[in-house]
Amino acid sequence: MIMQETISAQGDTAPDTADADDLIATLAANARAAQRVLAGKSDADKAAALRKAAQALRDHAKAILSANAQDVTKGEDRGLTSAMLDRLRLDEARLAGIADAVDQVAALPDPVGETIASSERPNGLQLSRVRVPIGVIGIIYESRPNVTADAAALCVRAGNAVILRGGSEAVNSNRAILAALAEGLAAGGIPAHAVQLVPTQDRAAVGALLRAADGVDMIVPRGGKSLVARVQAEARVPVLAHLDGICHTYVHCAADQAMAEAVAVNAKMRRTGICGAMETLLIDAAYPHASDLVGKLIDAGCAVRGDGRACALDTRITPANAGDWDTEYLEAVLSVAVVDGLDAALAHITAHSSGHTDAIVTSDAETAEQFLNAVDSAIVMANASSQFADGGEFGLGAEIGIATGRLHARGPVALEGLTTYKWQVRGTGQTRP
Amino acid sequence: MIMQETISAQGDTAPDTADADDLIATLAANARAAQRVLAGKSDADKAAALRKAAQALRDHAKAILSANAQDVTKGEDRGLTSAMLDRLRLDEARLAGIADAVDQVAALPDPVGETIASSERPNGLQLSRVRVPIGVIGIIYESRPNVTADAAALCVRAGNAVILRGGSEAVNSNRAILAALAEGLAAGGIPAHAVQLVPTQDRAAVGALLRAADGVDMIVPRGGKSLVARVQAEARVPVLAHLDGICHTYVHCAADQAMAEAVAVNAKMRRTGICGAMETLLIDAAYPHASDLVGKLIDAGCAVRGDGRACALDTRITPANAGDWDTEYLEAVLSVAVVDGLDAALAHITAHSSGHTDAIVTSDAETAEQFLNAVDSAIVMANASSQFADGGEFGLGAEIGIATGRLHARGPVALEGLTTYKWQVRGTGQTRP
After folding, report:
1. How many contacts, defined by CB atoms under 8 Å, are there between A and B?
2. Is A117 exposed, middle or buried (0-12, 13-18, 19+ CB in 10 A)?
């Protein structure tokens, strides 16, 4: 079993793979045993244990910040960008925020045990569907250490055990956070193995986790394109995937000018690096203030790439190439197309949307409803910024990710998405004829 | 592109694979286009088109029965067992039943458009989650030709296009049924490509369907262990899997004797070949009528394999080996273990259940509730035969299968399991601070 960090540059050799499978099988068996205990805990027990975990993060602040400082130093040596270092770095305020977030998850209503539906059959059988935990969840994520605490807290709140595999940049931070969480949970009567961190950064361990269909019930990948591509190629475990956010905003001919400009600038520029950021603006050919709209975006610091008609709106627009319509920029770059009415907008979105979030701005209620019904994305919006695509903004309290697949859960995934259901049947001795 | 039936005995060669990928890509593109039209159809339109499809099955009865006779003749030549031939064979009454089942699906309530949940945020955003079709569904199944009509009708009722890949034994029957269905749907304004049959029996086409993650949204495999194993090994498309049904019945010490005997005999012997049939009987060591219970099963024609204590109950019981506890017999064979109380029964079920259906018989309400809460299978029952594990018996009208996975849908899967949801957000120009 690999218990030491061994970074393999490329290509998992056969012995690595077998060792990694053994390692993950051990973690999964530990997780399964812990989950069975966790499944018997009450709402109050789980909430109390999570509050103890939050307090343990505060109690161990010094150790966590010291571990994080090691990661930051190592990251500086490895030449991480300042943006990456900023995402990695913790300070007392950020750590307090992480602990508070765990308390907030503790305060969320427990979804487990909820009766989703019930019915009685003519033969007297009483049926009900009751929400239960999924079981053992694997989460593969990249550099932000706060994910360690957020994801663990959400999984445990919904009665699941979690196996976390964080990025190598944050390995010391993640270990220190995980140790504090496990200590707090154990003090609250929840087995420490309910939250485990894969103890190696070997890439073979990721492959083993993706293959562990017998021991792991769901994988949530949170990371960039290379991680997502690997998960898609290798996973044998069901995946709750978060792919690209190629989000569109369509400014209809009947859009209010001030609203269109405010929504478009916010959707693109509030934070350009999040998956809900607008990447393509579709302007109706009959919208009378198109030049003003692109001007506002350019004035806000956005580089605009346009189709032929869009380029005619402002001399600062450069021509888009075919790839632009399928690009998630995640920076202050926007592609703009002029479209002839709702149907053309829908056709563009059908062809190029990644199915994350697409929005319309219009004062015409009927057109808004047509758009909301016709666009088949996880989130469709009328007259709002696509940057609202977020579990917190949706009132879910927190999110484990935004799912762009079609099964199980779509859009922001929070506690409910970390549960499944079972059928309970209560009879009085019925036999089937 | 392979448009002719070419049965490859073993091993997909590279050219076959490329051809099969092209074939499936074409079918998937056709399906996607048809599904977009279907998604715009009303409840009434879909119901009317399905009634036309049912009528087309009746109108083309002669052609369908003639095609089926070809399959039966071929099956006899190939030496299919009489049970397999019986499952394959259609007559006027069976075909009428298939058409009536399509009418029954037409009469089911349309799940699409249902608002699952809604809320208003403090900033005035109105959120709702609305049920929508999944999209394009692939179904891989074995010999019964009724599945062609049942599965197509269910998919279309919920607004999905379907790509069907039936067994080679029923290829002519399936083609004739599919042609009638497509004609009826088209007469009702639904594109014929909403229901398609993979036009080749080449095994490479199954592989291509399992890999078609860009074009197919979900795969439902309905078949034996070899199909399930292939799907688990190869699928890149999300799978709604139906694995083994190793179903347990636990007769508690406080079980009513007559009820225990009636439920156990029904659970095992009503039909031994269905996935909800009991495969293991757990008898509480304190249940006073254990010999009578196993005697009733043996008298009903069941071969019983027991653990040490079970063998002492009746001289006709043979010793079970370790593999028996993990075997889905699907015939008149039963494994029986004597267990010491609820906890021992739960431990046995945890170790050996396939997560399909497990039941308890007891007159003690508290024990029944403990069992219903503790057993983590798709269906848990108290005082009822596990043979009730069926979409029709659950009031779902019909079922596409019984899911034993943990995500998306569990237990009998019907129209609701063939849908997903999207978030609709209605604003008045909100931007995110």
Report:
1. 195
2. exposed
Helix (H, G, I), strand (E, B) or coil at A425: strand
Which residues in chain A touch residue B265, judged by CB atoms under 8 angstroms apart? 431
Q: List the single residue in B with minimal CA-CA distance to A350.
A: B36
Shortest CA gap A432–chain B (Å): 6
- Using an 8 Å Cβ cutoff, are A424 and A374 in contact? no
pLDDT of A19-47, one tens digit each?
Answer: 999 999 999 999 999 999 999 999 999 99
User: What ipTM, to 2 d.p.?
Assistant: 0.91
A298 SS3 class: helix
Q: Are A336 and A307 in contact (CB under 8 A)?
A: yes
Given an 8 Å threshold on Cβ–Cβ distance, is A379 in contact with B423?
yes
Q: Where are the alpha helices (DSSP H) in A40-167?
A: 43-59, 61-77, 82-88, 92-107, 146-157
Instruction: Determine the 3-state secondary structure of B73 from DSSP.
Output: helix
Residue whose tokens read 């019981």: B317
Query: CB–CB of B154/B413 below 8 Å?
Result: no
Provide the 3-class DSSP secondary structure of residue A200.
coil
Please tell me if residue B411 touches chain A, with a CB cutoff of 8 Å: yes
- Taking CA atoms, B270 is separated from A82, B87, B305, in Å, by 69, 17, 19
Partners of B138 on chain A (C-beta within 8 Å) are none
Residue B389, phi-psi category: left (phi > 0), alpha (psi -120 to 50), beta (remainder) = beta
Residue of B nearest to A374 (CA): B40
Q: Does B378 touch chain A (CB under 8 A)?
A: yes
Q: Quick one: DSSP state of residue B286?
A: T
| A347 vs A64: CA distance, rounded Å | 50
Strands, DSSP E only, in B112-159?
115-120, 126-133, 136-141
Q: Do A420 and B427 touch (CB under 8 A)?
A: no
Residue A4 pLDDT grade (very low, low, confident, very high; cuts 50, 70, 90): very low
Amino acid A92: pLDDT: 96
| Mean pLDDT for the stretch of residues A160-187 | 96
Q: Which residues pair with A221 in a beta bridge?
A: A140
Q: Are B54 and B103 in contact (CB under 8 A)?
A: yes
Domains defined for chain A, CATH in brackets: 14-234 (3.40.605.10), 247-388 (3.40.309.10)
Q: Provide the token pair at B162.
A: 């379907």
> Which residue has better confidence, A14 or B126?
B126
**Cβ–Cβ gap A266/B134 under 8 Å:** no
Supply the Cα-derived Rg of chain A in whole angstroms: 24
Q: Is A289 on the interface with B (CB under 8 A)?
A: no
pLDDT at A1 exceeding the cut of 60: no
What the block records as the tokens of A154 is 């959400």
Below-50 pLDDT ranges, chain B = 1-13
Beta bridge partners of B126: B120, B426
Q: What is the pLDDT of residue B13?
A: 43
Please, which pLDDT band fits residue A231 given cuts at 50, 70 and 90? confident
